[in-house]
Amino acid sequence: MGILRHVLTAFAVVALIGTALAPVQPTQAGEVWKAYHYNSSPKVPGVAGLMRIAEIVEKETNGEFKIQVHIGGSLPIDTLNMTQAVGDDLVQMAGDGFYLGIVTIGGILRLPMLLTNEKDYREASRIVRPYLEQAFDKQGCIVLGEYMYPLQVAWSSKKLTSLAEMARQKMRVTSPEQAEFVKRFNGMPVTIGAPEVSSALERGVVDGCFTASAGGGRLWGDLLKYNYRWGPNYFSSVFIVNKKAFQKLSPTHQAKLREVVVRVCPMIDENMIKDEVSVTEDLRKKGMIITEGKASDYALASKKMADFWDSWAKARGPVHVEALGKVRKAVGK
């Protein structure tokens, strides 16, 4: 009886997961999609933006097209597999920032020390966007929009007031490129999804991370003691949709979804900037030890990482070399 009970329980779990991820079927009232975001808090601008997109789309299509938004951890989808989940139509839309394992061309935008101001990042993003769209298309996805976080700065539960103090610290990273940066400065990179960071900090699996105040600073600030306002790269997310599901929409609904995403993304960027200031100040008042970045650390890190940019591109093929060359020319590096 004990074995039978375990078997029946296992079947029940599988059935529940299958139900949660089953493609939503259109109702008589119109089309219903599922959307997923890797962040677990509706207060984070990216999640709030996705919710806003869903709200506007439903309102401006008179309820004919609805998008059900699920936040990080609410569905059995790993953060690193969100591109595949959208491509497989497990969810029809996602806010995806952890796609570099599949869509490697996006790594150009996160090469450590290549893009360290917003102007350069915006120009590089414009150049990379066609390559990014082609790569996502191969995964059965369409890119509708992009938003960016402020510079990913360094945080830790241990003393971290300079680049040198990152040595021997376990740092949660958001990409293989960021992991290489941590290694070159004698830290230990750890790759985990956003929903798992809080527990990892509490258990000492990681000491710190790279994130913006507007992102992880808001979520994990109470678990951290130091914020070094210096960082190696920006982090952006894309709103992607399943290609076949999108093509099944009426032309009117396709156009509306595209227009709303383009309308909302700049709002997300603006809210990120506002939150960066307010969240940082709130954490300072709570006792966070905040240190401004040193120019000497930027110079040292840029010098140490420059050879990595070309070797990274060459290892991934001629398309990456071509795109990186255009970006380096545009930003003067």
The count of β-strands is 11
Give the CATH superfamily of the largest domain: Bacterial extracellular solute-binding protein, family 7
Order of helices and strands: HEHEHEHEEEHEHEHEEHHEHH
Overall mean confidence score, pLDDT:
91
Helix/strand/pairing category: alpha/beta
Amount of beta strand: 15-25%
Tally of DSSP helical segments: 11
Largest sheet: 6 strands, mixed
Write down the Rg.
21 Å
CATH architecture of the largest domain: 3-Layer(aba) Sandwich
Poorly predicted runs? 1-20, 23-29
How many distinct folded domains? 2
Major sheet: arrangement of strands: 7-6-8-5-9-11
* CATH fold category name of the largest domain: D-Maltodextrin-Binding Protein, domain 2
**Could you name the CATH class of the largest domain?**
Alpha Beta
Distance between the termini: 68 Å
